[in-house]
Structure formats: structure tokens, C-alpha cells
Design brief:
CATH architecture of chain A: 3-Layer(aba) Sandwich
CATH superfamily of chain A: Bacterial phosphonate metabolism protein PhnH
Helix content of chain A: 25-40%
Largest sheet of chain B: 4 strands, antiparallel
Structural class of chain A: alpha/beta
Order of helices and strands of chain A: HEHEHEEHEEHEEE
Radius of gyration of chain B: 25 Å
Largest interface: A-B, 12 and 7 residues
Number of strands of chain A: 9
Oligomer: heterodimer
CATH topology of chain A: Rossmann fold
Order of helices and strands of chain B: HHHHHEHHHHEEEHHHH
Strand content of chain A: 15-25%
Chain lengths: ~190, ~375
Amino acid sequence: MDNSGRRNQKNYRSLMQAMSRPGRVFRLDALSAVSPFAAALAIGECLLDPEVSLCVIGNGGVSTLQAVLVGATQVRTESLETADFVFVCSVQSQGGVRSAKRGRLEFPEEGATLVYCMNSQPACASDRFRVRLTGPGITGQGGIAPEMRGVLVEEFQELMDVNADYPLGVDAFFVRPNGEVMALPRSTRIQVR
Amino acid sequence: MGYVAVKGGAAAIENAEKFSLVRRAGGASALLKPEQIREQLHFAVDRVMGESSLYAPDLAALAFKQAAGDTFEAAFILRSYRTTLPRLGYSEPIGTDGMRVIRRISAAFKDIPGGQVLGPTPDYTLRLLNFELQDESSSHTRQQIRQLLQDTQRLDPLPERFPKVVEMLRREGLLVRHRHGSGDGDGLVDITRQALSFPAARSAQLQTLARGETGGLLALAYSNMRGYGSVHPVIGELRVGFLPVSYKNPGSGSVECIGEIQVTEAEVISRIAGAEGPAVFSLGYGLCFGHNETKAIAMAVLDRAMACEEPVAPSEDQEFVLTHVDGIESMGFCNHYKLPHYVTFQSELDRLRNIQIGQRPPEDTPS
């Protein structure tokens, strides 16, 4: 196995760990410091291939990130409503999460996976302590606050709404350029105070 | 009876994993190298590759080592690894008459075009323990191999292609085409991308059987052979050999050979019982990764059994067979019973106690 293959295996395991411990921050390995989308690409290399579909939305860098992901993985591009994976070039999906696939009761796994590509530093003071996460993989009935700073409370509310009909819903990763990654699977219950 | 919390035990769980290491590697013997497993325990490696549906001898050997020889676990590990890999493309269809054969026999005809090639097999040896292997001399074994290879150099080389035996029957019009299931569409079904549904297309049927667990396939096929079914198979041809894998270069458009895989292929012939019209034979087909003749034959018998119009025996029922032959699914279901069922069992226990003391369970009591 070449170095790239080993890195992908290691990062895949980190993504699994992140999904197993919602709200905790893990770190992806061996990222290129050159590209601002290196961390997003690291996730793409683990999860994307020509068999699945991708939609990139957001404020800036959409076409660049899409070109990077398609070039590296040959993933198909589709509309937001039908894409298996949605990469959000922003801290906020601007309501896009509501249009993403949530699966069917017979096949809930068809729900989309969202990857929020966050900024290096949160622009504003974090109000993450208004958010409580509980559910599988989170110790204690009181839950935890999400470890990653800078995720907008409004986005937590959006995720709370689209995952209200569990097992239908979406799974989400939040990733920073330095490789920090946090996951919120649809099984996580979100409360906003 | 109160609620029984499922808490604690994290340290014990971590230690259980460590103790597994002691069980595997705590002895005095030298640690196994994956290459030794790949070369010397090749039947196990082939089985793991087949049941995980990933052709990767080195990784299958590694999985077998990690699982300490448990083929279920090893296949589970390798299939999990398979799911992490990107799917880069699809190989071109392969004609198995182009197989580089190392073994090829027919139980239907003594004289077949190209001849019978017995190849490497323990079929014709007595199943007696060979105590000489306890202290096997490396130099002696290598000398035996050298001698064998020298002797075979004097023989005529094998032909590059062997015609298919069943083609002789097909030319005579004695083979009926396989009855396709009603789930057959225009394209191939891939059960790793689409959940299995019934009636399943034959492509889904063959794929499920090809990655089925050898023992599971054998048990169901054996039930059919013994009389719980109507297949009386004759092995038209059994082949073991290497097939070239060709891939169409998306850039240049040219088809290139990117390697080869070892497979076992079985074609069993069985007469169609009670068929209207002229009496004909029908074919059952089996193909799996590596050298695994038992699996290929069992697969072919089940493929033929499931082609019957009105299933009577379990082995003829497509849904019954295909939902029970996957080793990882069945092993997982069996082993999930080891997980805590404290709450459900306490509920059952309460109910039983209430019944025994002549009381109806509280939830059944009218309010």
C-alpha cells in the first residue's frame, strides 16, 4: 500500500472515531499545507469515488473545491437534492441542509452526508455552550457541548430540524483546514438553549 | 424487578482485546509472517478472499493472522477493509475458456478436448496424518519440488486454451438455457450497491453465492444432493486456474491486462425432471476466488436448484438460500446474542414468574 493509501486508511479511522464520539474533535493526518481545501480533500479521498455523487455549495471557493474533489476522486456531481455528499464551503449551509436527501424509511442510509469546510479561526465568540449534544457515543445523560468552536447555533438548529424524524436525516462532519474534524451523526440529539 | 443498567466494564473490554493477543502470540513459537500464511495456508487465504469478496492475497493472509485462523473473522475484517476502498472502475468481462489452467477435470466425460489435468489436489491421497511434517526438512522438501519441476519439463506444455466441456452438449442441443428470474433487468445487479430484493436477478444470485460462506453453501447444497431437492449433479467441468483481468483505459480507450486472479469454476449438469418437450440437461454454475472446489461445486448445485419452477425444498427457495449463505451476516447475527440482553431477559423472567404464580402479567391486566 502506498503512502496515500495508508493516509486514507488512517483518516478513515479518524472519521469513524469522530462518528463514534459525536461532538468531539479528532485530527486528520498528513495534510498538505498548500491547499486551503486539504482537509476537505482528505475527507473526500476517504469517502468519494465515481459510484457516489457530490454537490458543493457555499459562499466562496465552490468551483475550486468541486474541481479539486472531482479531479482527485472522479466523483459524479449532482444537484443538492440528489447528491450523496454535500460539501459546504462555509460555516453555514444557508438553508441548504434542508434540501439534502434524508433517505427513506426503508433505506435511511440514503440520507446525505454533509461536510462543512470551516474557517481557520472562528470569526466570532463561540456560543457553543448554548448547545447540548446527547445520544449514542456521548457519556452522561447531561450531554456535552460541541468541542469545535465557530459552528453557528443556527446551523445546529437546522440539523436538529432535519434529523427530527430519525432514522431519516443527514450525517455531518465539520472540518477545519488544520485537519480538526468533528462529527454529528443523525443519531445525536441536539438541544439549543 | 428493577432496571439493570448496562454500565462499566470498559477496562475489562480493553483487557479482553489484550488477552486475545496473548492467545495468538503468547506461545514459544516464532511469530507467523503473513507471507508464510499466503504461501503455505493458501486454501485458508483463498477462502477468506472469496468470502470477503476482495481479491487481495497479502491482505487476506494478514487478516487470517489477525483473526488467529478464524476464517469468519478474517473475512469480516477484509470485507470491512473493502468498504473503505474507492471503486475506480470495472474490468472487462472475462471468458473463462481463456483460463490459464492448473487443474481441469470432468466427471461427465473421460475423454475431453485438451484432456483432463489433475494438477495440485489432495483428492487422490489417503487422509492419514503425515507425521513427517512434524519435523519437515526444508532442504528435503525443496529437493522434492526441484525434482518434480525437472520431471515436468520433459512433458508437453499445456495448451493455452481449453474448450469448455459443456459446449459439446450445447452444440447437440442437449442444454437448455438458464431460466432467468423475474428480477432480471437489462443490466447486472451489484448487491454491494443495491440491497438484495426478491425475486433476485441471476447476477445478484451468483454474486451472493460467490461471496457466501463455504460451509453454509455446502450444507444447503448437501441437503439438496441427499434428497431434499431434485438436483442430481454431474460435474461437467471443474477448473482451477488464472484469469487475466482486463481494464479499459479511460484515457486512451485501449483495453489493457492489469493482472490475473486465481479462480475455481464448476459447471454441473443435471437433467430437468418432468420437463415438457424433449429431455434436456440444465446447467448450474459456480465460480469463486482462489482454489476452493467444494465451494464452487456447492454454488453450482444451488444455482441449478434455485432454477426450478416450483421450489419445494429449502435449497430450491431463492430467498431462503440467499439470505442464509453469507458468513459475515450469519456469524454477526449468531454472535450478537453474546451482547447484553439483560433488560429483555429480565422482562421475560418477570413474565414467566408471574405466570408461574398464577398471575397475569401486569400489562395484560385490564384497567
